[in-house]
Design goal:
This protein is an all-beta fold. It has strands at about 1-5, 10-25, 25-40, 45-55, 60-65, 75, 80-90, 95-105, 110-120. The two termini are about 20 Å apart.
Length: about 130
């Protein structure tokens, strides 16, 4: 598990290899990830949007920006957390993601970023 804390918000990430399949006559590698966003601060916060940078070992690079996470903009009170699972497809059996969440502090209306540490994807058969 990978973890990082930014401004009292702890991000924890677990990854899994989901398998391979063909799409458009090309093999793809499916990976899943589960992220827990824990509010270790003293103010109520809301996640409003996300930014992802996705890399694979074939030097493919993709940037994704969007509202919330999996269709939600969770409000997280002090001492509480929000967990969700998602996934990505890579053209290679090894890759990584990193990014950030844009958040709002309800106490002072401050907008801030919470960084998601780089987390790696590895198909078990790709490593020695």
């Amino acid at each position: 598990m990978i973890t990082q804390v930014t401004k009292g918000i702890k991000i924890s990430v677990d990854t899994t290899f989901e398998g391979t399949f063909f799409k458009n006559y090309k093999m793809h590698f499916a990976f899943g990830y589960t992220i827990t966003i824990e509010n270790q601060g003293k103010d109520v916060v809301q996640l409003t949007s996300r930014h992802w940078e996705i890399f694979d070992s074939l030097n493919e690079f993709e940037v994704l920006d969007g509202e919330g996470v999996i269709g939600k903009k969770p409000v997280i009170r002090p001492g509480e957390s929000h967990t969700y699972s998602s996934g990505c497809l890579l053209a290679a059996p090894i890759g990584a993601m990193k990014g950030h969440y844009n958040m709002v502090n309800f106490t002072n209306s401050e907008k801030f970023r919470v960084y998601v540490p780089t987390f790696k994807f590895n198909a078990p058969f790709a490593l020695n």
